[in-house]
Each structure stands twice: as structure tokens, then as C-alpha cells.
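Inputs:
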Amino acid sequence: MSDETKVRRIVPIGPYHPLQEEPEFFKLVVEGETVVDLEINLGYNHRGHEFISPELTYDQVPFLVERICGICSNSHPLAAVLAIEDCAGIKPPPRANFIRTIIHELERIHSHLLWVGLAGHFIGYNTVWMWAWRYREHILQVFEMITGNRNHYAANKPGGVRWDIKPEHVPEIRAALDLVEKKTMMLTKAVLDDPVIRARLEGVGILTKEQAIAWSVVGPTARASGVDIDVRRDDPHCAYDQVPWNVIVLSEGDVFAKAKVRLLEIFESIKIIRGCLDKLPDGPIDMRIDEIPSGEGIGRTEAPRGEVFHYIRSDGTNRPIRHKIRAPSYMNIASNVVAVRGGSIADAALTLAAVDPCYCCTERMAAFEDGMLKYTGKDLLRLSWEKTEKIRERLK
Amino acid sequence: MSSSLQLLRERFPQIEVMEKNPRRLYIRIPREQLTATARFLHEERGMRLSICTGIDTREGFEVLYHFSEDSTGIIYTLKVLVPKDDPKVESLGSWFPAAQWIEREMHELLGIDFVGHPNLIPLLTSDTDWEPDRRPLRRDYERRNEAHER
Amino acid sequence: MKDLRLWGLKKSPWVYHVAAASCNNCDIEILELLTPRYDVERFGVVLVGSPRHADALLVTGVINRKSLPRVLEVYEQTPKPCLVIAIGTCACNNHIFRNSYNAVGPYDKHIPVHAYIPGCPPKPEAMILGIVKALSKL
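Outputs:
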């Protein structure tokens, strides 16, 4: 290679991408094929939730925070009502706790399947994408049956839940779980045993345990790096301490470990839901709250991507005076800066996607520097697919 | 009482602890001791920074540092009061990368200065359509129906 | 020539998806359209990677100050005639974010919108219906 490739260049990724969701803007600084630095530019999705929340009453706040993210649209309301309940010092009735747990875990299953599908797409396995999303549909149907909406379930309210799980729902939930379990088993075997996928994902985008601690990452990103944290176990809420389940922790820290953690967590979620359905107590699903006293409260829960943190301060009126929201990707995306460093450009799209951010890469590319490198998000995908092809050829 | 709290009390006798419930501890500390306390919690007790919150109160800006101790499930919230006429706090971002983004955000939306932050530039707001001294999370920010301005 | 373009547009609309400060939900549901359950590709609807190839823009989310210039740029790059279909209540009327300091939407303030599909998020069936209705109006 000539010296020319040693020049540092900037590859902008974002903010719009043909496939994915939220706009985010990354600037990859590359030397030849190697990524040496990453600059993350946020704000394309900033809507000022923390500003709007004090204008709403406590009953309306869950509806607002539900609309932070459409994929984890149960985690934020759950954390918000936990914060409100922590502030008021109330405990919801046991049946509400179990229903919250069931809805929360169903959401984790659909979110993880969604990520597996997208990760498959990023490495050129569109079959994985179609499969995973097809089985995810069954979970969405369960949601529609219980709550009336495929996403944005409006399940939580301070003091309980809005939707009851009726006896006739239980067999349908179990049937959907059986199907998803069988198909996820198949998918897991197909993905984890595929030598091409292994070669493509192993050793890519490593986040070491020390880095994971320094960047305070959460959720599957941390658990794949050997940091044994899970808010569901460490700070028990809802019904998580009443059913048996395990925390999946792996130590490699690469993209393969992150994929594996997520796939294995689907089975744990299924276990939790089955345990909850077995033990589902009778009784009311919500309670009357007369007043939120002045004070402060913290609610946190384990979203599919990690810990969701809500802080609410009340002055005794029916509106919060400050509502702080921390989504898990806030910590996880920041850690991309160290995870992509030293990898190749072909791996960058995958590494950035591996923390399951509400992620987005690009389409339109502005020619930067001297305009010699012209990678768009599509080119990144193409590079990624080409690398998979090469590995596939080699392994034949 | 948890051992971390005992050690914290021994090390920093002037702290003021409010126990909301056994899992939620709020600890008021003097502004000068922030770095020492945070270093103690993160480096010696292995706590993770969940997030920081900036609040505009009547007394001044309150900056809350929520540290999570994952082995016990307790959240230690350090409270620092910053006077409005001198809104400066030591930055944790210089030695603790997890704090960098949130300090940028608080600087941007509340106007608190974090002394020693490596890169205190706006995080979320637009670089073209935003007046730099707009601080929407301050109490005196004029709440207008901005989206309907035409 | 224009008739020819319209014919091409109606026969097999290629869509480009613009998310400006949305919550992902409409965006995920748009992708859901491609996957086996709904599979809109059988109608010739293809999600393309560049606005330059697109016949229709599916726009979601409230627009915020930072993404507005990007949205306008995407619209500029789209060959005309093009359809703009606002998906979700946010894109139609700013929804719960109307009082936010950062929301500058909705879309029809900045670019012409041909169809509105409200819902939070609209069901995939509603999206298909909306696209079909918008096409049949051409």
C-alpha cells in the first residue's frame, strides 16, 4: 500500500440510512482500512421530553415517556411509574406486578429478535432478518390481544396496570411462547453454528471489561463483556424475585458474545413469562392514589438494551417539577468510541449496531476532506457483505 | 446501614445523608468534595455512574450524581448545590468517560460550567438553529408554544 | 413524458424512508411491511437506499431543529413528481411534542405532503391502505 492510504480520512455515517430507524451521525476517522477514531454527533432525535414532562400530570407522563422509543415502549413507562411509586412510597397490587413483568419480558423477546434480524442484515444474511422478524410478529399479536396496540401498549400507570390478562389470553400467550421458543432455538442453532457468521463476528468490536466499567455501559453490552449486572436481579422490582431465571454473562466482549447474550436471554424471558403465568395471582390490577407527596423518587428497570433510569422530583402538586430520563443507549453508544477503534471499516457498521442502539447510519454522503473516499452507508453495508462473502469462500 | 455508606461517612464526615428508603440514599456533599467522593465511590467501591441530573431550584442549581452499587442494588445520589451566580462544578468527565456526555448535556440545557471537561461542546441542540444562551431547563425559560410559531 | 413518469410511479413505487426525530415505532412498522407477514414487495413497493431513486418519501416523526435541514435536503434530492406520505401522528400534527422547544414540524409546514396516515403507530394494514389511496389519486 502506498503512503497515500496512511492519510487520515473521515467517513461520515448518517444521519439517514436506508434500513434503520433513528438518525444519528457518526464520523469515522480512518487510516487506510483501519478505524482510528469515532466522533458521535447526537441530537437528530432530541425532542425535549424532560422539558415537556413537567407540563403533564402524573397520569399523562407514562404516555409521554412511552414515546421516547418505540421498541422499548414498556421500559420507559415502567421506570417512570416505579419512580413515581418510589416517590409516593406505594406498592402496586401483586397481580399488577406480575402483569408488568409479563409485558416487559414479551417486549424483551421482540426487541432481541428485532436486533438479531438487523444484525443478520448487516452481515448480508437477509434470511436471518426475515426469519427473526417473522417470528417477532407472533409476539406483536399477543400484545395486540392484551393491550390493543402492536407497540406503545400503554400498560403502566402509577399504582398498577391498565390492561388485565384475561383467562382466555393465557393459552394464546403460551402457544405463542412455544412457537417462538422452538423457532428461536432453530435460529440460535443456525446462527451460532454457522462458521461464516462465527468468523465474521468473533473478535470484532471488542469492548473489554475495564472499558465497559469505565464507560458505565449497561445491559447486554455490559454482560457480553463480563460485567455481571442486571437491574432485574440487583434491584428487584415487579415480580422478578418471585420466578426462577438466570442472568446470562459472557466474557468475550465481541459482537458474537453480544449476539449470543441476546439470543440466550430470549429463552430466559420465556422462562420468566411461563413462571409468571403459572403463579399469576388474583386480585385488583390497580389502586387509587390520592396524592403524590413532595419529594423525589428513582425508578429503574432493565430494558432490552440495559438499565433505564428515571428520576422524578415532586413538589406535592399533580405534576413533576423535574423528570430526568436516561435511556440505556446513552451509555452504550458512547462506548462505541473505544469499540470501533482498531477495527476495519467493513466491521464498523456491525460494531456500531452491536450495542443495539436505536442506531442509524447513512445514505447521503458529503465528500469530506479531499473527497477521495466515497463511502456511504450503503457502501459500508456492501463492504460488510463482501467481507462475509470472502469468509464464505475461504471456508468452502 | 450498608458498608459503603459507613466507609463514606468515615472518610467524609461532613456529608449529610437522607435515607429515603433502604435502596435510595441521597447524600448532600459540599461542592469542593465532589471529585474526591465520586472517585471514592467509583474507584474504591466499584460503583457505576447511572446518570447525573441537573435541577434548577430556588436555592441554586442542584446537580445530582446517581451512582449505582450493583452488588447491593442501592443507588447513592450525591447532591451538589451550585449557586446561580457562579455555576461551576468540577468535571468528572476528565477522568471518568461515562460522565462526559451528560455533563455536556447539562452545560447545554442548564448552563452549568464543568471545569476541566475535555470537550464541553453542545451535544443535542442544533448547530445552526439555536441561540447558544437558550437554556430550556431553567426555571426562567419562557415556555412558549414554539412549535406553532409561524 | 410526465404520464410515463406517473405510470412508473404508480406501477411500482419505490419508497425512501425519512425519520426525523421519530420514536422508531413507525420506522419499525415500515420495515415490518417488508418482512414475510405483510411483504409489500409483492406489490412492487421497494424500500430503496437513496432518495435519488425514490418515487415516494415515507416521512415519520416530528422534525427537530437539527434534522430539518437534512429533511429539506432529502426532499430536494428526490426526483419530482414524488409523493410524500406522512406516517404517524407525529408527522401529521406533532402529537405530544407540540410544546417542545426543539420540534419545528409538522412536515406540511416545510414540504408538500400528499397523504396523512395517523396512528401511533399506524398499523401496517393502514399504511398499505394509505399508500394505495395516495397512488390511486394520481
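Remarks. Chain C touches chain B through 17 residues (CB under 8 Å). Chain C has a mean pLDDT of 84.
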